[in-house]
Amino acid sequence: PLDTFLQGTNAAMKALTIAPVRERFEMRRASDFGEGGPFSQKGWAMLTSPPESPGIPRSVSLTILGSVPTGLIWYGYYKFSVEEELFQDELRREGKVTGAGGYGTLLPFVFAFLIGGAATVAGHEELGGPLIQLGGFWILAGQVNLYRRVNELCLSRKEALGLTEAPLYSWWALLPPPLDVVVGLRQVHFLARYWTSVRGDAWEEDKVAEEYFPFIASERFTLREFAREPRRWFWFSREWGDWW
């Protein structure tokens, strides 16, 4: 069954990780990070925290702050953390999983690219090429699945989150940049709001998502609506009329 495969993948990849790293990033119970924005002590604590249960509500502002200066290295840690948090949460609630967890999602991708890249450099393109493609497929399929799960979780608390429908189109993960980034930022925002609700905390306004780039926090929209409605794009285009 799928559940057995996913749990087995996560366990196998975790076993391949050296003990000090496993111990540093072991799941822990939810912490009280206090109050403050991304540049506060709270922001630093959230950026460097191991995965928690319930999950950490990492805002778009915080995610950008961690990702951009590190050349997206921290985003890899974000991906690991949210997948592990969702994996453990689903296992606790349902007794089975529909995702591969942090280890099972990230490490097969990393290993495929490292081994495939090394094989290609060594002149074995017939091995390196397929491995790199397999790694790309694995992480992309995981991203589509992540959006699906975020939709389900948000709908389970739609009243608390003020939603009338699922916030994401999962298949947008397959679109080319920058449209895949659009849905990725929305996933970060709505998952942060979900975990805030689960923890029973008050939502702290995220100006990047809710003011500067309205498309991140708005209701779900189609590609056509996104193209024709500038009010969704930027803070300075909120008052612009539809293009057609």
Would you give an account of this structure?
The chain is mainly alpha-helical and 244 residues long. Helix content is 61%, strand content 2%. The protein has helices at 2-15, 19-24, 41-48, 60-67, 73-94, 101-121, 125-156, 158-161, 179-199, 207-212, 223-228, and strands at residues 28-29, 52-53. Strands 1-2 form a two-stranded parallel ribbon. The protein is globular, with a radius of gyration of 19 Å. It starts with a helix and ends in a 16-residue tail after the last helix. The model has no long low-confidence stretch (mean pLDDT 97).
Low-confidence stretches: none
Quaternary state, please? single chain
Straight-line N-to-C gap? 49 Å
The main pleated sheet reads as:
2 strands, parallel
Mean pLDDT: 97
- Beta-strand percentage range: under 5%
Secondary structure: number of strands:
2
What is the radius of gyration computed over CA atoms, rounded to a whole number of angstroms? 19 Å
The secondary structure category is mainly alpha
**Helical segment count:** 11
**So what's the overall shape?**
globular
Question: For the largest beta sheet, what order do the strands appear in spatially?
Answer: 1-2
Helix content: 55-70%
* SSE ordering: HHEHEHHHHHHHH
